[in-house]
Specification:
This protein is α/β, with parallel strands linked by helices. It has 12 helices and 16 strands. It has a 9-stranded mixed sheet with strand order 11-10-9-8-12-6-13-16-15, sandwiched between helices. Helix 3 packs parallel to helix 4. It is globular and about 65 Å long. It starts with a helix and ends with a strand. The model has no long low-confidence stretch (mean pLDDT 93).
Length: 359
């Protein structure tokens, strides 16, 4: 099951709206005879791939699957039926699929066919591996990771705006790998206007053609000559804007290939609860928020951060630098967003600290 879970991670950022699943087929002698994971776009499924590799050796074997096999007809037949047709003798799963179209039906189908089913194996690990999909199905929003890259004193730029580079090359490479593990990167329009970013994955050996670049831009201010707008036909760009934003600008950006998604306004920018709900309805399961300071503060205020990935460089910029977070408008310390440490990794001289909400 650990191997199946590791295989499932290969689909991060590339299989939405489907879950990324791993499957391992083991014969009666304990030999792995087939491995599979959900492929780009969500098809084929992991079980189908593993069974194809196992061939006739799947008969009587045990299939370890990181999520309950699907039981419904979609773009492909049910994976539960594929396991039955292959003649496997036993299926071991980590947990039930919360999708109402499955939700125990896959296990029931297998048992009805006389297959021994064991579930709830490595549930904690599987819940973490499938957290994005579970979030979209259960909470109607993607898993949100907020990424910060700062100096020791929490700054992202000098007073002049100079910011390249605070973190080292190794840490920046790790940040691109982090991008590859998400369906979308989200930034605010302020970051776009200041930096004109590409928001692509630029690390050797990693390619995610389905990565979506999302801009929170209530007034549709995205410049038509920006790198994002200019590349929208090649790599998806979604603009979260208010319906009353300038109609001509919306039409101009749409003509460039930018997808316009209307969400209600908030006192500042767009309503983030509605925005992430819209992203989930479009199929996104894992979204990486990269700022800037205003969006980072707003998403913290909205209590929408599920994970915090904080890259820190061992250097100080000082009080006249640009802070990673905008104003949180706290009136008491009890209102502070609080987190608990989960992991620490070192990238050359820099550190990546990962946190989750404390409550």
């Amino acid at each position: 099951m650990k191997t199946a879970l590791h295989l499932s991670e290969r689909g991060y950022g590339d299989v939405w709206p489907n879950p990324t699943v791993g499957c391992v087929v083991v014969d009666g002698d304990g030999h792995i005879v087939g491995r599979g994971w959900t492929l780009s776009g969500g098809r084929p499924h992991a079980e189908t791939e593993a069974l194809k590799r196992a061939g006739a050796r799947a008969k009587g074997a045990t299939a370890y699957v990181s999520l309950e096999p699907c039981a419904h007809h979609g773009a492909t037949p049910p994976c539960a039926q594929a396991l039955i047709d292959a003649g496997v003798g036993r299926v071991v799963t980590s947990c039930e699929d919360p999708d109402p179209r499955v939700a125990g039906k896959g296990h029931a189908m297998l048992r009805a066919a006389g297959i021994d089913v064991v579930s709830s194996v490595l549930v904690k690990e599987a819940t973490a591996a499938h957290a994005g999909f579970f979030s979209r199905v259960k909470r109607r929003r993607p898993l949100i990771t907020l990424k910060l890259a700062t100096s020791l004193d929490g700054k992202i730029a000098l007073k002049s705006g100079e910011s390249r580079w605070i973190t080292c090359k190794a840490a920046r490479g790790a940040a691109h790998i982090l991008r590859s593990q998400h369906d979308a990167i989200m930034v605010g329009i302020g970051t776009v206007l200041a930096d004109d970013p590409e928001l692509t994955i630029r690390v050797a050996g990693v390619k995610r053609s389905r990565l979506v670049r999302v801009i929170a831009d209530a007034d549709a201010r995205l410049p038509s000559e920006s790198k994002l707008a200019a590349s929208a036909l090649e790599h998806a760009v979604w603009l979260l804007c208010a319906s009353d934003a300038d109609v001509a600008r919306q039409a101009m950006l749409a003509a460039k290939g930018v997808r316009i998604l209307h969400v209600p306004r908030a006192s500042v920018g767009v309503d983030l609860h509605q925005a992430v709900g819209r992203l989930a309805s479009e199929g996104l399961t894992r979204v990486l928020v990269e700022g800037g300071a205003s969006l980072a503060a707003s998403i913290l205020q909205a209590r929408l951060v599920d994970r915090l990935a904080w890259f820190r460089s061992p250097a100080a910029i000082g009080g006249d630098g640009v802070s990673a977070l905008g104003a949180l408008n706290l009136t008491t310390l009890q209102g502070m967003p609080r987190f608990k440490p989960v992991d620490t990794m070192r990238w050359a001289q820099d550190v990546l600290e990962t946190y989750e909400p404390a409550t």
